[in-house]
Design goal:
alpha/beta; 211 residues; Rossmann fold; 9 helices
Length: 211
């Protein structure tokens, strides 16, 4: 069995504000990786308050706010430099009134609780980075309003990609990502019900948890 291999800390790759700005420019050119996520978001048709976890420099955040003028987004990011770049991008797009960036850790229960509750809590390409996914999942589920949705979109570990002898960010992330059955088992052990997982082409999956 191809076991999950934990990734290195992201701080090793984003050690300066220039790194964050370079990543933001790269992210603007790679929105296709969110194609399935954005299509599912449209289908969900959830209005109100959103919490985005692992918002990075806010490229996706701004795209969502532009598309859905009726939503307000709290953008949570662990790295302060990413938050700085994200706030600059939000201000540049004149969305300060609907997007609020905050520095924080998804595994910090007290901090997540302080943010309040949301109609939609979502995360993209972050699950495989979490040191303690059990704790993070419980915290995020607790932040969802009754009747709301937790939506996690991440890479999916595939044997043929896993065994390619290349060590770079993408392949390391594939090796660190989860299988659908691993996620189902984890959520079931945490007592989180009403979970649906669907595979997304070519190597992602969507995890929907209705509260």
């Amino acid at each position: 069995m191809f076991k999950r291999v934990t990734e290195s800390n992201q701080d090793d790759f984003f050690s300066s504000i220039d790194d964050a700005r370079n990543y933001a420019e790269s992210a603007k050119k790679s929105m296709m990786r969110y194609k399935a996520f954005l299509a599912n978001l449209q289908s969900l048709d959830i209005k109100g308050k959103y919490l985005e976890v692992g918002a990075g420099p806010g490229i996706l955040t701004v795209e969502i706010a532009r598309t859905y003028p009726e939503v307000e987004i709290t953008a949570l990011e662990l790295l302060p430099d990413m938050v700085t770049v994200g706030r600059e991008y939000v201000a540049e797009n004149k969305l300060d009134n609907r997007i609020k960036f905050v520095v924080g850790d998804v595994e910090d229960e007290q901090f997540i609780h302080s943010l309040g509750e949301f109609d939609l809590v979502y995360s993209t390409y972050s699950l495989h980075h979490w040191t303690n996914p059990d704790k993070a999942a419980v915290n995020l589920y607790s932040a969802v309003n009754r009747g709301g949705m937790l939506y996690i979109y991440d890479l999916r570990r595939l044997w043929w990609l896993y065994w390619i002898p290349i060590k770079n960010g993408f392949f390391n992330s594939i090796r660190a990502s989860y299988l659908p059955d691993e996620i189902k088992l984890m959520l079931r052990k945490l007592g989180i019900q009403n979970t649906e997982i669907q595979k997304e082409f070519p190597f992602m999956h969507s995890i929907f948890v209705k509260k």
